[in-house]
Design brief:
The complex is a heterodimer of chains A (381) and B (339). Chain A contains 13 helices and 12 strands. Chain A is an alpha/beta fold and 381 residues long. Chain A folds into 2 domains: 133 residues, Alpha-Beta Complex (Aspartate Aminotransferase, domain 1), CATH 3.90.1150.10; 241 residues, Aspartate Aminotransferase, domain 2. In chain A, helix 7 links the parallel strand 6 and strand 7. In chain A, helix 9 packs parallel to helix 13. The longest helix of chain A has 23 residues. Chain A is globular, with a radius of gyration of 22 Å. The two termini of chain A are 32 Å apart. Chain B folds into 3 domains: 193 residues, 3-Layer(aba) Sandwich (Rossmann fold), CATH 3.40.50.620; 55 residues, SH3 type barrels (Roll), CATH 2.30.30.280; 72 residues, Translation factors (Elongation Factor Tu (Ef-tu), domain 3, Beta Barrel). The longest helix of chain B is centred in the N-terminal third of the chain and has 20 residues. Chain B starts with a strand and ends with a strand. Classes of the chains: A alpha/beta (381), B alpha/beta (339). At the A-B interface, helix 10 of A face helix 2 and strand 3 of B.
Amino acid sequence: MIYLDHAAATPVSEKAKKAMEPYFSERFFNPSAAYQASVDVRRDYEAAKDRIAHVIGAKGADIVITAGATESINLAFNAINPGAEVLISSIEHASVFEAAKRFKTKEITVDKNGKILIEDLKKKLDKNTEFISISLVSGELGTIEPIAEVASLVKAERLRRKLAGEETPLYLHCDASQGIGLIEVKVGRLGVDLLTINSAKVYGPKGVGALYVGHNVKLKPLVVGGGQELGLRSGTENVAGVIGFAAAIEEAESHLNGERKRLGLLRNILIKELEKVPNIAFLGNAKNQLVSFVPISVPGVDAERLIFMLENEEIYVSTGAACSASKGIKSRTLTAIGLSDEEIAGSLRITMGHLNTEENIKLAGEKIREAIIAEQTRTAK
Amino acid sequence: MKTVYVGMSGGVDSSVSAALLKEQGYHVVGVYMKNWSKNLPGMKCPWAEDLADAKRVAVNLRIDFKVFDFEKEYKQKVVDYMIEEYKKGNTPNPDIMCNQEIKFKLFAETAFEDGADLIATGHYANVEDGKLLKAKDENKDQTYFLYRVTSEVLKRTLFPVGNMLKPEVKKLAEKFGLVNAHKPESMGVCFVGEANMKDFLSEFIDVKPGEIRELETDKKLGYHDGAIFYTIGQRHGLNVGEGLPYYVAKKDMEKNIVYVSKNLNEKNLWTKEIKLKDVFLREEAPKEIEIRVRHRAALIPATFDGDTLHLKNETKRIASGQSVVFYKDNVCLGGGIIE
C-alpha cells in the first residue's frame, strides 16, 4: 500500500497506541470518582491536557477537549450570539461553513493559490464584526494563511473600539486541524483567541480534538451535563483518547524540523515525476504551502476514475473535498480559486506523511503519471 | 461498432452485463441512473455507494461512465404514483412503474439521444424481435416486472445475463475480477425494502388510525394505524383477538375501516375472476393463457375476455393495484392491473 491521503486520516503512532492501552482496561476508572484509583486517572488526564496545550503554547486549563475538530469549531462559534456578524474565508472546511450559516456571514476572497486577500478582509472587517474564522492551512490546497497578520488587524480594531467606547466584542478563531507537526503553531505568536486542533491528523486516535479558549472569550457550552471541561463540554472524559492525543501531538512536534525536511525531499521527487504529464497544473504556491501537500489538476481527466484505477495498485489518493464530480457537487475551495469545472473534475489531492518513503513516492509518482496518461489516451480516442 | 448504454446499478448482474458486452465487442457506456438520494428515517439511501461501485466497475472495464439524473421524474412518475395508489387503498408495484416510465422509457430515450444504438440492463429476461421471453433461470426470471415495456424499446434492448443461471453470473463476476462480485442483492422496491414501506409511506401520507371490525359481525375488534397499510389477504400485524388468525378481507378507505375474518372460506378472500384495468399487451393474447400474480408466483391457467380473467381454479384474492402478467409458453405477452 502507498498511502497518499494523510490530510484525511493518519495511522495512530505506536507510541500513542501503547500509551492508550492501560486506559481501556486496568485504568478504566471514571476520573470524577473519589477513590485513589480514580484520582490517579484524573491526574494522568490533566497531565495529558497540559502536554497537548503545551505544544500550542498554552496551559491545560486553556483547552477544552472535544470529540474532534468539527465539534471544536461548533463550540468556538458559541462565543457569539444569533444575529452576529461573521467573517470567514471562502475556502473553509464544511464545518466552518455550516456553523457560520447561522449568523450574518461574509466571505473573504482568496487569490488563485487560496491565500486570503488581506485588503478584502480590511474592507469587510467593520465595527459590527464579532467573529472571524480562518483555517491555518487549507485542507484542500495546503496553503498557509497569514493568521498573525489577521490577528494584528483584529487587535487594532479591538483597540479602536475600546477607545471609541464601543462594546461589540471581536474574536479570531483559527482551525489548525492541518499543520501541526510540520509548522509551528503557537497561540501567542498567532495571536488567536480560539484555536481548533485535531488528534486524528497528527497520528493520534480519531474522535478527539481540542479547542483553545483565550481568557477574553466567554463561551456557552455545546453539551451540558455533569460539568466536565469547565462546564463547556460535559460527559465522562475520553481518557484513553486524550492520552493518545497527547503522546501523538508531542511526538509530531518533536520531529517537526526533520519531518518537514524529509517531506520536502519527497515532494520534489513526486513533482519531478508528475511534471512529465501533459497539461498538469500544480495547485497552490509551493513557497507558501504545507510541505506534505501536492494538489494537482489535469483538465479533461476524471479524477474519480484515477482514484479507482490507483486503488487497484493499492495507491490511495483523494479528490480533496468529500464529494465528487459525478455526484454533482463541486469543491467550494477549487471554485473559489477560480478553477473551471473541467479543472475541478480533474483535480487530485496528494498528501504525504509518515507512511511515505523515497522509494514508495517514486513508485507512486510513476503509477499516478501512468494512470493519468492512460486516461488521457482513452478519452482522446 | 454498435454503441450500447448499460444501466449500471453497482450490483453484480448489471456489472457482468457490461463486462459481457465489452467482451462481445460493443462500444459500451456505463450509466448510473440517479433516481433517489434522500435518506428517510431508519433508511440510509445507498445511492452514493452504489454509484461509486458502478463507476469502479466501469473504470476497471475501461469503459466510459455517465450519470443520468432522473430524480425529478422518478419522484413524479414512480413515487407519486405509488403514494396515490396507496391512498386509494390499492397495493401498487413501483418496480413495474419504474421499468415502464424510467428504465425503459426515460433512460432509453436519453441514451438514444446521446448516441446509443442499443440499451442494456442486468435484468433476467430475454428478447427476440421485440418479444419478451422468460429468463433461462426460472428462479430469477424478472419478466413479471418488465411486462409493460414496449416492443419498440425491446427491439433495441439487450439482456446479457438473460440466458444464464445466477451462479454462472456470479462465477463470471469473479472471472472478470469485478469488485462487487460478493455484494448482496438489493431486494424489493428499488429504494425501500418491503419492511420499510410503512415508514416510507408515513413520510408522505398523513395517516390516521381507524377501526378493525369483524366482517361477519361488524364487531369492533381493535384499531389499526392506517387502512392504507393493509392488504387484502394479509394475516400478520393485526394484533386482534386470539385463537385462529384473522385475515384482512375488505377495506373501507372512506371510513378508514379494515374488515377482517377468521373464515378462510370467506368469499372476499377467494376469487375465480379478476377484473383488470390498464391492460397492456405487446401482442394479442390467445384464449388459453397462463398468468402470474406476483414475481416468482406459480403460473395459473386462465382465459381472458378482454377485460376479465377467468381462472380455472379458485385462487386467493389478490390486492387491487397489483399486476397480473400473461404468458403463453415462454413468451410474456403483457398484462394488466387488478381493479
